[in-house]
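Design request, C-alpha cells follow.
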C-alpha cells in the first residue's frame, strides 16, 4: 500500500492542463474564488463630510469545501493506522491479532469513506460538465473534452473582442462599458478554471482515489494473511504445550 491516507495523493499536483498559468492557478480538491479577509467592495467616502450617503460593503462570497468532512475522517483514519502499524512491531500472539483486527476495521472504514469522497468528486465533475456544456464544450465517450482547442480559442477571441471594443472608445463611453469588460474577463477566467478543475478531477483526483481503495484492499489482504499465520502459530504452540 503506497499510503494509509485515503485522500487522493495527487489532487494538489501531478497532472495539470497548463491553462491555469495563463489566468489563475487552481488548488486541490475544490476551487476558491474569494478570500474571507477581502472586502473589495468597500468604497470609502471622498472626505470633507459633504455627503450623507452611507458607504456600502459587498457581502462576502465564499464556497464551502465539499471535501472537508471526508478529508478530516480520512486523515484521522490514516493517523490511527500509522500508530497501529508502529505498535505491531512489538506485539506477538493474541495481542498482535487484536492489533491486526483493529487495522482491518480501520481499512474497511477507510474504503467506505474514500468511496464517499469519490461520489462527491463525481458530483462536482457532473456540475462542471453541465456548466462547460452550456459554454459550448463537447465531450468524448470517456468524458474527456473533444473540442478543447476550438472552444478555448472561441472564448478567448470573444473576451478580446470586448477589450478591443473598449480600447477604441472615448473616455466617456468607456466609463459605461467597463462593467461589460469586467464581466467578460470574469466569465473567461471562470471558464478556464472550470476546464482545469474538470480535467483534474477525471484524470487525477478520481483515479487517485480509486487507486487508494485498491491499495487499502491489498493491505487488508496482507493483514488477513498475517493474522491467519499468527493464529496457526498460536494453535501449534498450544498443541505443543499440551503434549509437554
Amino acid at each position: 500500500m503506497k499510503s494509509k491516507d485515503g485522500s487522493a495523493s495527487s489532487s494538489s499536483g501531478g497532472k495539470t492542463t497548463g491553462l491555469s498559468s495563463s489566468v489563475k492557478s487552481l488548488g486541490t480538491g475544490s476551487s476558491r474564488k474569494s478570500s474571507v479577509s477581502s472586502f473589495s467592495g468597500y468604497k470609502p467616502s471622498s472626505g470633507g463630510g459633504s455627503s450623507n450617503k452611507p458607504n456600502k460593503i459587498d457581502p462576502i462570497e465564499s464556497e464551502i469545501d465539499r471535501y472537508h468532512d471526508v478529508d478530516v475522517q480520512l486523515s484521522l483514519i490514516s493517523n490511527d493506522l500509522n500508530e497501529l502499524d508502529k505498535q505491531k512491531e512489538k506485539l506477538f500472539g493474541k495481542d498482535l491479532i487484536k492489533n491486526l483486527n483493529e487495522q482491518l476495521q480501520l481499512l474497511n472504514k477507510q474504503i467506505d469513506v474514500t468511496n464517499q469522497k469519490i461520489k462527491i468528486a463525481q458530483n462536482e465533475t457532473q456540475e462542471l460538465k453541465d456548466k462547460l456544456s452550456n459554454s459550448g464544450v463537447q465531450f468524448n465517450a470517456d468524458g474527456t473534452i473533444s473540442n478543447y482547442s476550438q472552444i478555448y480559442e472561441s472564448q478567448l477571441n470573444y473576451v478580446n473582442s470586448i477589450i478591443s471594443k473598449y480600447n477604441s472608445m472615448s473616455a466617456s463611453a468607456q466609463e459605461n462599458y467597463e462593467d461589460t469588460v469586467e464581466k467578460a474577463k470574469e466569465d473567461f477566467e471562470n471558464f478556464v478554471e472550470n476546464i482545469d478543475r474538470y480535467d483534474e478531477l477525471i484524470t487525477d483526483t478520481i483515479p487517485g482515489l480509486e487507486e487508494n481503495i485498491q491499495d487499502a484492499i491489498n493491505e487488508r489482504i496482507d493483514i488477513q494473511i498475517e493474522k491467519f499465520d499468527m493464529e496457526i502459530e498460536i494453535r501449534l504452540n498450544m498443541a505443543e504445550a499440551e503434549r509437554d
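Comment from the thread starter after seeing the answer: thanks! Residues 67 and 76 are 14 Å apart (CA to CA).
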